[in-house]
Amino acid sequence: MAKIIKIYPENPQEHLIDEVVKALQQGKLIIYPSDTVYALGCNIFDIKAMERLAQIKKIKLEKAHFSIICNNLSHLSEFTKPIDTATFRFLKSHIPGNFTFILEANKSLPLAYKGKKTIGIRVPDHPIPQLIVEKMGYPIASTSIKDEDEVLEYSTDPELIAEKYDHLVDIVIDSGFGGNIASTIVDLTSGNPEIIRQGKGIL
């Protein structure tokens, strides 16, 4: 049964963030708010947690394209090939923000990402995921929560989300109503920004 933790972006309580970080370090799954939609997250270095994440999405882990949530660009060189100055400046001017950037992956990716040629990097403009990653010291794997509703593509009510994912995740962070427009996906692998999916972020 998932534990619901109320954390508000205006005043995130440190001990609650610590509780979430501890859970992630233990391989648990969380649902957390972002600057776009609510998302599922786990420890990128915990293969069992990553497998659970893939299971929820009904896909095989090797076929999954989970984003990596960072709190700044400092983790970039750990997971991506070197980027040129123009790309770095472009990234810097658009983070934090409502974007997922596709970059060329290097060979130091965590086990669950092995063999991937590209990786999606995201720095949400939201204090809660930023604080979680900052406290952990490394990024989290992430995927948006989709809704079966034809009108509303993404679930926005944390109470309904908690009800639906009650036996699938360990913690649901209730941060009030979320958005229902996902991030804009921008491919930077060619050196020129190419929008793969138009979402909330406007270039």
Automatic annotation (TrEMBL):
Task: Tell me where on the tree of life, at the top rank, the source sits.
Answer: Bacteria
Query: Which InterPro entries does the record cross-reference, listed alphabetically?
Result: DHBP_synth_RibB-like_a/b_dom (IPR017945), Sua5-like_dom (IPR006070), SUA5_domain (IPR052532)
Q: Write out the GO MF terms.
A: double-stranded RNA binding
Gene3D superfamilies tied to this protein: DHBP synthase
Enumerate the SUPFAM superfamilies for this protein. Answer: YrdC/RibB
**Record-given protein name:** Threonylcarbamoyl-AMP synthase
What organism, scientifically named, is this protein from? Bergeyella cardium
